[in-house]
């Protein structure tokens, strides 16, 4: 899980990226919209400014001879205009008078030109109304006129050769300059109006700032003035939109990224939890399956043990119950033999009875031995010594030669049970071969001692080999089938093993291991080629089976 | 069989008291076949043999007369062999017979009173040897 924690799920990553992308796009769009809005606001402001200027310009646009179309600024709040200044072209010798309506006539507010055809305060009512003409040429003084109060303004232009007092009116292109207006538009924008289609400084009609040409983000707009198209140029002094509106784009971006992150994390956590849950489920299922399997195995083992216990129980009971009848019969046969007078016909029957009784006794013994409940009481002893005792108690029948290659190894086990074990292994070999050779050897194996018993009899069928340690399994015509079962029980009680050993050559080899003394036995054990002890007698040559092995490999 | 007064069949107190001095064995065993054959074997070996079919009767008989050696089975009705020994402060030389393994605790209580222990089925020769030793007084 730790390794997985470093990598968010692909889904979470994809969704997060998608949301982030959307928020980026949203931000961009919002910013663009904001910019467009700004432009629009600017244009609106410019339009407003232009309209106002246009109003003024229109009112100053004087077609020839039309004093009557002089600016009617009275309709407008004179506070809108702090002052006017406009350069005018006046032909040499011409004069310009700024007229002011006064009642039905006009008086001169200001006059420029040489010679001065007009003078301030001159009343031109009669003259202006009657004369219209064109002047040639131009001179360029700049007339700065301060105005204030309600006024109607008009122009009078006198040509050089005009007799004094005669007014000639010229169509003038009059760039008019506003400065210092407290028009709200002009508070937030810089604005310039050019009397032409290009921002030519000499055609500047008016500007709200002296810092010309306008720098930065500049918007141009065509403004119709009379029949001409003038050019308005504007730029925003600062953001026209509210700061919040400007920030909206970035807010969208930041919010979007946050949401993207949140969603990604949530999805990742959810999917990881789900994966974790799935893993847990899989683990638990596997554990459950394992538990079920273990349970089944345990049940099988239990059933097996119970069965074995039941068999053992019955065997034990039968074995014990047989002892008294066997005693009685043994005694009776003894008495018959002791009586002495047996006919030649009777004698063999008696012998047979005694022999068979011996077999029955052995069976009874095996039955009770099989399930003797004693827990092993281990003690160290020499296996060679024990073997001598065992061989004395269970000597080989005639025709069987037993060779031992047994060194002085210390076994740590229940002595009585080990004696039983050896006895059973050896008698099992006797019964298996009838006539022949038996070898017994030992070797250390770490903390254990291996005891091997091999014969040169017919050997053990591989199919049978798996079961020969089970009780009541026997391929022999004689024997109880319990001998090896007893061996296995004893071996298992000591935590050892017993098995049929694969080897070259004929005959059977059974190897048992019992706990031993590692310190005393050591690990190196030289092969004992010479027999350490021999019992019994060689079989008759005719009976020697084929495949005799002189020394076990 | 020998001509001594063998008490045949189910044991009861002997009606003919034995002359003093002849070695007498008391066989205490509930299984009739085992008891009678043991008795016959021991008589054939020259001993005077009394028989008791259970521990209770054995105690009565021992109270009434003297047996020098007792061949005692363990598992019996009424009173088992261990109980018999427990109730005899000075029992005769006792050879204990058993078919089963003995419980260690029970056996420990009477261990000192047991001369020898025979596991059934035993070779009759071994029985005779053991009884001879019992009379000889050797500890086996």
Structure description:
The complex is a heterodimer of chains A (553) and B (140). Chain A is an alpha+beta fold. In chain A, 43% of the residues lie in helices and 20% in strands. A 5-stranded parallel sheet of chain B has the order 2-1-3-4-5, sandwiched between helices. The N terminus of chain B is likely disordered. Chain B is built from 5 helices and 5 strands; from the N terminus they run E-H-E-H-E-H-E-H-E-H. Chain B is globular and about 35 Å long. In chain B, strand 1, helix 1 and strand 2 form a beta-alpha-beta unit. The chains are: A alpha+beta (553), B alpha/beta (140). At the A-B interface, helix 5 of A face helix 1 of B.
Count of discrete alpha- or pi-helical segments spanning 4 or more residues of chain A: 11
State mean pLDDT of chain A (0 to 100 scale): 72
What Rg of chain B do the Cα atoms give? 14 Å
Class computed from helices, strands and strand pairing of chain B: alpha/beta
Rg of chain A from C-alpha positions?
Answer: 66 Å
Strand order within the widest beta sheet of chain B: 2-1-3-4-5
Number of strands of chain B: 5
* Relative helix content of chain B: 25-40%
Structural class of chain A, please? alpha+beta
Question: How much helicity do the residues of chain A have?
Answer: 40-55%
Low-confidence stretches of chain A: 1-5, 58-91, 126-182, 547-553
Report how far apart the termini of chain B are: 29 Å
Q: What is the oligomeric state here?
A: heterodimer
Name the average pLDDT of chain B. 82
Stretches with pLDDT under 50, minimum 5 residues of chain B: 1-12
Please report the total strand number of chain A as a whole number.
19
- Secondary-structure element pattern of chain B, one letter each: EHEHEHEHEH
Largest interface comes to: A-B, 18 and 17 residues
- Major beta sheet summary of chain A: 6 strands, mixed
